[in-house]
Amino acid sequence: MAEEAGVSRRDVVAGAAALIGAARVTAAAAAVRSDTLDAHDAMGLAELVRKKQVSAGELLASAIAKAEVLNPRFNFLAQKHYDYGRAAIARGLPQGPFSGVPWLLKDLNTYVAGLPTENGSRFFRGYKPEVTSELVRRIEKAGFVIFGKTTVPELGLSGTTENKLTGDTRNPWNPAHITGGSSGGAAAAVAAGVLPAAHATDGGGSIRIPASCCGLFGLKPSRGRVPMGPPRTEGWGGLSVHHAVTRSVRDSAAILDATHGVEPGSRYGAPTPADSFLAQVGKAPGRLRVALMLTPASGSSVDPECVEAARAAARLCESLGHHVEEAAPRLDMAALGAASFVLIASNVAADMLDRARATGQAIGPDVLEPITLGFVAYGQKTSGMDVARANSALQAGALAMAQFMASYDVILSPTLAAPPLELGRINLTPDTDFAHWGERAATFSPFTQIANLTGQPAMSVPLGMAKNGLPIGVMFMGRYGDEATLLRLAAQLEMAAPWKNRQPQV
């Protein structure tokens, strides 16, 4: 009957789950205005807690209740750790800058001892680490209340958050479309209004891609800025970094203040800033020299709407007094792309072989998706010389980029080459072979990986909207170690073209 009336069985199940979730709202949560989580960023929520206008318990209960209602529709929670959050509040929270604010970790190589980290993979189902990540310690010291982990594609290998373990994560702006990846669960939760900021990581665009797809601010910090361990202090040979997706620029800056700094044992770290990152928000950036790059170094095509979003951002920058001219660095993207593939594939293969030895499970299609198996197969064929040459290629690329940026403060480009794709286009179980999958994935996101290859900071700013009502991000890339300039510019753009009230109707 429900399907005959135009309502699917999935809608009925989701509706029932939402009612159950709503029924679990505690009396404390009921005392919180229903729009509190929507009306404030993380710093704003922390201020409410400091002024005793709301308690940490009330905020957590409200976030949990909202997650229970919305997760059946958008599928952003990989794990629920509600009791862990409640216990943290009961013990007493540190008086940090975000004391009492709910927080979600990304379910990818980020550990709380004794709690599962499954990396979006059936191969890691039930895995419980014995260590807690240094980043988690800093997040909790800042006062954040962890209450779950967000969905990811298997091992973070795709620009869409779809996997065989937890299913498809759907975009709150249009559930038929992707949230991006690999921090797609985090972006969906923030875009849906469950919380104002969430943990994210970026090894090839995985903060900026979902930020673009979901209409959020996403800053990828410089290599070595935020701790990656333990048990190891870099990811994918230095390609990957940790940070967050946020609604506001100031949240991103303040979270970076709470988390940055070299961790014990790290082989390198980003330059220590002269002032706090939050102090950059509101400072005049000066007259910046902006290179407008509309064609990716790979030469692949870009959707006209994404090009126009970048051009509109350029015009906005000019209206704010910045100098903009079309220019682009000369990079051998074939060599750089091959180098990153060697590093990623060799890391993936080593990790999967170690997992197989530790568990006695056989590597195969029952536990890993087809594209992941392709990475494993290629990684097993790489040699030490391949890795050494890959590192040399990345260093050459970083030098070429540094020379180009001696003449420019930032590079402005589209974040992505198209608005958010429909689900099923670039997942890890495709309808095509490995080579064609790689081409699809690369042509969707041809701009973002450069910053990972060179270690530079870059940010996706939610300045555009497609005709179909989906967000379009615009990317700015800065010099290595110079998040300050990006944050000053981002805050200026946020003031000139506010996006605070542009949220999906969920």
Explain this structure to me?
The protein is α+β, with helices and mostly antiparallel strands and 506 residues long. It has one domain (9-267, 286-496): Alpha-Beta Complex (Amidase signature (AS) enzymes). It is 40% helix and 14% strand. It contains 17 helices and 15 strands. It has helices spanning 9-23, 27-30, 36-39, 42-50, 56-74, 82-91, 134-141, 184-191, 208-214, 249-259, 304-319, 333-359, 370-381, 384-404, 434-444, 449-454, 483-496, and strands at 77-80, 102-106, 145-150, 162-163, 167-168, 170-171, 174-178, 197-202, 217-220, 241-246, 289-292, 323-326, 410-414, 458-465, 471-478. An eight-stranded mixed β-sheet has the order 8-10-9-14-15-13-11-12, sandwiched between helices. Helix 8 (184-191) packs parallel to helix 9 and helix 12 crosses helix 13 (370-381). The longest helix is centred in the last third of the chain and has 27 residues, at 333-359. It is globular and about 55 Å long.
Layout of SSEs?
Blueprint: H1 9-23, H2 27-30, H3 36-39, H4 42-50, H5 56-74, E1 77-80, H6 82-91, E2 102-106, H7 134-141, E3 145-150, E4 162-163, E5 167-168, E6 170-171, E7 174-178, H8 184-191, E8 197-202, H9 208-214, E9 217-220, E10 241-246, H10 249-259, E11 289-292, H11 304-319, E12 323-326, H12 333-359, H13 370-381, H14 384-404, E13 410-414, H15 434-444, H16 449-454, E14 458-465, E15 471-478, H17 483-496
Parallel strand pairs: 2-3, 11-12, 11-13
Antiparallel strand pairs: 1-3, 4-5, 6-7, 8-10, 9-10, 9-14, 13-15, 14-15
